[in-house]
Amino acid sequence: NAGVMQNPRHLVRRRGQEARLRCSPMKGHSHVYWYRQLPEEGLKFMVYLQKENIIDESGMPKERFSAEFPKEGPSILRIQQVVRGDSAAYFCASSQMPQRYEQYFGPGTRLTVT
Amino acid sequence: GQQLNQSPQSMFIQEGEDVSMNCTSSSIFNTWLWYKQDPGEGPVLLIALYKAGELTSNGRLTAQFGITRKDSFLNISASIPSDVGIYFCAGQTQGGNTGKLIFGQGTTLQVKP
Q: Which of A9, B15, B65, B82 is the most exposed, having the fewest neighbouring CB atoms within 10 Å of its CB?
């Protein structure tokens, strides 16, 4: 199964620690998107990346959050100095092209901040 | 910001019944996608629509891209217990090159055997 891979599936961090979420897109996909889902809500766009480039980060909080998609390896969503409000499910999606193409989602990482 | 209004918020139906849900927006969308999410999992793509007026089926599922480009609906015929889950509409707006999806709030479907 060459679907979108995310790890870890569950991550527990204490307030003030750093969280690193990883995403490997589907084979042949070079466009990666990160979304956040709070309980009982829909998904909210955070950032769109291509290899080595951030294309749209309009949904990213201005502080503590960063994302990268290096030439080699998975895309990383990094949250520094986590707070309880960061607790959510974080989903990665990938597509072949940015528009007019389907986005396929990974299983998500459930982040819990204690 | 842009919002999608999805309705109904939840449905509780008998097995075998047909289901209909819809999404509306104040903005024009050039793509509509319908996803299903099971608890603890990521959204799974059901149907993608790219053209105003387009009607597309996937098994017992049928979805349409509204003529005004501001709405879409999803129908499920002859529901079965495994249809239980949360259904999300998502759209991409015209212009730009971001490809980001805007999601509705979801419709929770429960099916009584």
A: B82
